[in-house]
Amino acid sequence: MKKLGAVLAVAFALLVMQSCSGPVVTAVGESDDLIVIHDGGATNRAASRLMEIMQASDAWLLDEPAYKATLTTLSAAGDLKNRRQLFVVGTWNGGQVEKTVRRRFPALEPGEPPRLHLDRDVWAKGQIVAVVMADDESQLLSFLEERGAEILTAFENGSVESYAELRREEAQSAGVEEALGGRFGWSLAPPTGYDLFTSNASDGFVFIRRTRPDRTMFVYWQEGGAHHVAEQFALSKREELARMYYDGDEIEWQRPFEIETVEFAGGEAIRISGWWANRTLVGGGPFRTYCFHVPSQGRVYLVDASLFAPGLDKVPLMRNLDATAHTFAAHPVR
After folding, report:
1. Which residue(s) pair with 308 in the sheet?
2. Quick count: other Cβ atoms within 10 Å of Cβ 181?
3. Residues facing 8 on adjacent strands
């Protein structure tokens, strides 16, 4: 089992722009689209290396790329600046990138060691923008080579959290959080188009679903303590619930499978990423489960997202589901 907390040791700041002059448009684009912005010329090699890092394949999702990157310059970016995910890379050489970074990202200054800086809502609402600057391209390339995997992980986490925050704000405005919190003691904030299904109140099981393609999430809870946040409990409970409520779904053990310890819902969680299969209905796809404890409630939870999307890219759909999972919030139990 891996401990992912250390991955985020790469120095970065995740800031929310809350001034009255903030963006009024909402970011657009799929969750695997990435716009890489650089100055051209002096940073061609660094920008190309960054694209390779951000397009790394994901073994869990059958080697689909983490992002599909488009390389551009600030002068050619145009409407691309309202995209959901941007990555600015440059040097302190007096070019357009430096001028924009000085104006938009004042936390970054020349002479500092290179670091990853993440910012939200810079040109559009619900947007994540990463910036890496260095004194010259050689320094920039060295940083990318040394910290490439950490940069990708931190950017993915920032992207998920940025989208989750947008979902939370919309759900709060619509009163969804309050309604779910009062009924179940927890809330989620899915996009529009999902239907909610409940079981008997004593079962502690609720799921939401949206079709075309089929995306399903469930929340399960029971009385429990921190000792339940364990690999065996999470796996056995996930299998039990899938058999009972998902028409006999099973974990497909021969597919890529990951079990990690991550931060989730303000605490530590077991995260399981794998594939499910249904022999009777002849279907299958990826799933991701979080198992965690909420001490204030004396409950242990499983939050699960699964996908059935044959012929479609899995990365953007699962990333959006993961972001919805991250909107989970515990509420006082009445």
Report:
1. 214
2. 17
3. none
Write out the two tokens for 97.
């990138």
- Residue identified by tokens 């679903």 is 209
Per-block mean pLDDT, blocks of 10 residues, the chain (334 long): 34 36 84 95 92 96 96 89 96 93 96 96 95 96 97 97 93 88 94 90 91 96 96 96 93 94 96 94 94 97 97 97 97 85
Q: What is the DSSP letter of 28?
A: B
Distance CA 12, CA 159 (A): 14
- What does the alpha-carbon distance between residue 248 and residue 243 come to, in Å, rounded to a whole number? 4
User: Could you say which DSSP state residue 315 is in?
Assistant: H
Average pLDDT across the chain, whole number:
91
Please enumerate, as own/partner, the contacts of 294-298 that have beta carbons within 8 Å and a separation of 24 or more.
294/265, 294/267, 294/330, 295/226, 295/267, 296/330, 296/332, 297/185, 297/330, 297/333, 298/223, 298/224, 298/225
DSSP string, 48-96: HHHHHHHT-EETTTTTEES-EEEEEEHHHHGGGGGBSEEEEEEESSSSH
Burial pattern 86-125, b for ≥16 Cβ within 10 A else e, equals bbbbbbbbebbbbebbeeebeebeeeeebbbbbbbbbbbb
Q: State the Cα angle at 96 between 90 and 97, rounded to 5°.
A: 30
- Say what the pTM is: 0.90
Q: Tell me how far apart the terminal alpha carbons of the chain are, to the nearest angstrom.
A: 36
How many whole angstroms separate alpha carbon 40 and alpha carbon 90?
A: 9
Strands 329-330 and 186-187: antiparallel
Angle at which helices 137-174 and 176-184 cross, to 10°: 70
Is the Cα torsion angle 306, 274, 328, 122 positive or negative in sign? negative
For residues 88 and 131, the answer to whether their CB atoms sit within 8 Å is yes
Radius of gyration of the chain (CA): 21
286: preceding bond cis by omega (within 30 degrees): no
